[in-house]
Amino acid sequence: MKINFILKVLFFAVLINNILADEYADKLDKIVNEYNNIGMFSGNVMVAKDGNIFYEKQFGYADWEKKIPVTPETLFRIGSLNKMFTNAMIKQLEKENKLSLEDPLSKFLELYPKETGDKITIKMLLEMKAGLADYGRNPAFNSDKTKFRTVNDFLEIIKDEPLLFEPGTGQEYSNSGYVVLGGVIEKVTGKSYKENLEERILKPLGMSSTHYLLLGETVPGMSQGTTISFNGDKKSSNEIEMVSPAGGMYSNASDLLKLDRYLRQSGLIPPGIRAGGTPVWNSILAQLKDGYTVIINSNFGNAADGIIQRFMDALENKPYPPADYPLSMKLYKVLDESGLKGLKENLRPLIDSEGMEYRAFHLNMFGYELMNAGELDKAIEVFTLNTELFPENPNVWDSLGEAYMNKGNNGLAIANYRKCIELDPNNQNAKIMLKKLEAK
Fold first, then answer.
1. Fold topology of 1-323
2. Residue of 79, 34, 36 whose CA lies nearest to 301
């Protein structure tokens, strides 16, 4: 009797797990197909339970111009998911008693004056509380990205970036901080970041499809990042993207599942939902409760983010908005049909409908997308509107200055860069651009 009871309990446990797995698969499949049906998703989606895959599908093309379909082996750029690897290696070194999370940065790197380096701890860098900025916004990086091939190349410009706040008193997303952690890993081990990555994670876990590639290096199966025009046309991106301890590796869902298993078993990093991306890439590694894992890799920007947000609501049986076009496409439609007046009137309702905070960032991004699409006059109109709506934000004046500079109107470019510096005396980009313009 006791044996029969145990067998019944096991049977029902398996049955419940299968029902939950089917629920995960059905809800996610519905959302992904909604995105796919409006032409807003391309990539690979995987769901696993306790490391065992029970759902995997591919959508769209690895290369939209050559019409090469996505396969399970297709490699995607995973953006800031690199930070998980960097974080894990720091925790490994902690377990090996080669560093402590409470150690000051000055113990390993002479990046800042000792007084500053003593205040910054390894833990602050991991939690983005050290006050470091983002090398992606550094003019020294953007003027020639091709020069940055080693961790030290990045550190050479990061050391001159002013801190955003006193270490430990705030929190700000920081790519620079994770590059510094990469420098700590190199200093402690005497090996390059890439060597550590291979020896500590990729080879032991059998992650043969994950690659730390420098500019110009290629491996078979790489997908192409995709730009989507305001009317939905798709083409391969020519964006220059560099790899660092903060982001930019290539991987696929199968390899990320190996990382998921390792992190769950080792306990090095608490489970959670982590994302990485650029305007043309987006990846998600979601470690959910009860051993469920969702992995989404896409060569469309923001597609994976939208899917996982809706999926989490679906799991809790909450209502969620249907798959939709990116905000930039909606803004363009309003601007094209109703002009600047219509854009001003509809901006806040559109941002609110996306569930996002109303701030200068959205029009700024839209302005840059217009510039990148060659619609400079419209970009100037949008940046100008942004200065009217958010006059105390220094970045909106910086962006308008850049647009006028690209237009060849140096007088207005200088005026706007000066306004930016007036609001933010530490804005290095505006200072550099202003110096160049005034020299002319």
1. Beta-lactamase (3.40.710)
2. 79
